[in-house]
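B., you asked whether I could sanity-check this one before it goes into the benchmark set. Here's the sequence:
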Amino acid sequence: MSKDINQSRHLSTLDMMRGIASLSVCFFHLTFNNSFYGNFLPDGDILKQIGRFGWLGVQMFFVISGFIIPYTLFHNNYHIKNFFRFLGKRWLRIEPPYIASLFLLVFLGIFYSRIWHYEYNINWEQLFLHFFYLPQFFGVQWLNEIFWTLAIEFQYYLFMAFAFPLFVNRNKWVRYLTLIAFASIHFVFPENRILTSFSSLFLAGIIVFMQKVKLLNMIEAIVMICICSLYAYFQFSKDSLFISIVLLMSALMILLLKADPWWGKFTGKISYSLYLTHGVIGHNVLLFSMYIPFIRDHYFMRIIILFLGIAASMIFAWVFYRIIERPAQNLSKKISYS
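And here's what the prediction gave me:
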C-alpha cells in the first residue's frame, strides 16, 4: 500500500511540474514575446523581465516526457510487437486536441478576415503538413509557433518505441551504451528540427526512469543527471546555462520530490490544453484591450488585463480539456498492449 501512495505522490509531482511548465510558457508569450500584437508591456517592466524566462517551460516538458514515456511503457510491459498499439494510444492522446487547435486557428483567421475586411486563403498544403508535424522539413511556417515542440515530442515517441528494449536490457552495458549513443548522435545530426538537438533533456528524464525502476542506483542516477546538465551547457549555443539549470532542477524534482499541492492536479490536468490554446485566447484578450483608450493609456490597467488574459486562457483550457482532450484520453486508455 505504501508503494501505491508513493507512486501517487510521484505522479502528482509530475502534474505540478506540467502545470508550472505550461503556465511559464503562457506567461512568456503574454509578457515578453507579444510583439506580434504590439508592445503590451514597456521595455524594462519587471513582469516582462520575469516573463522572458518562461520559454524554459518547454525544456521542462522535454525532461518530463523523457521520463514518463519509458515509465509508462515499462509498467505496461511494452514490446516491439506493440509498436502500432503504442502509436495508436499516443495519437489518440495528443492528436485530437492538436487538430482542434489547428481548426480553431483557421476559424479565427476566417473570422478576422470578415470583420477587418481582408483576404484570407487557407493554405491546404500547410495545413496538411501540420497533421504529420512536417512544416519544418518543407520550409513551411507553423500556424502556431509552439507547434514545433510537438514535432520534437512525436519524434521522441517514435524513437522510444524502437529503442525502449535497449534502455531496459538485462545487460547493463547495453543500457549504458544506449545512453551514450543517444547523447552522442547529436554530433552527427545537430539540426534543431530533430530530436537529437534536445537529447540531453530527454536523456535526463530517461535516467530518472531507469532509477525509478531500479536499473540504476540513486548515486549513479544523480551523477548521470549532473553529466547531462553539463552536456546541455555545451549542447545549446544560446541560454545554455539556463537550460542546464532547468534540466538539473526538473530531473531532481522528478527523482526526489514528493509534492501534491492543491493547485497541481488542476494545472497539470489542463496543461496540454493550455499549452495549445493560450496563444489564441490570451493574446486576443491583450489585442482587443488595446482598442480601448482607458486600458491602452494606463499601465496598471494593462497589468490587470494581462492577468485577465492568463485567467481567460486557463478557463478556456479547462473547457477545451473537458470537451476535447478528456474524451481523447479516455479513448486512448481503451487501447491495451495485451
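One thing to flag: The chain has one domain: 2-333. Otherwise nothing jumped out at me.
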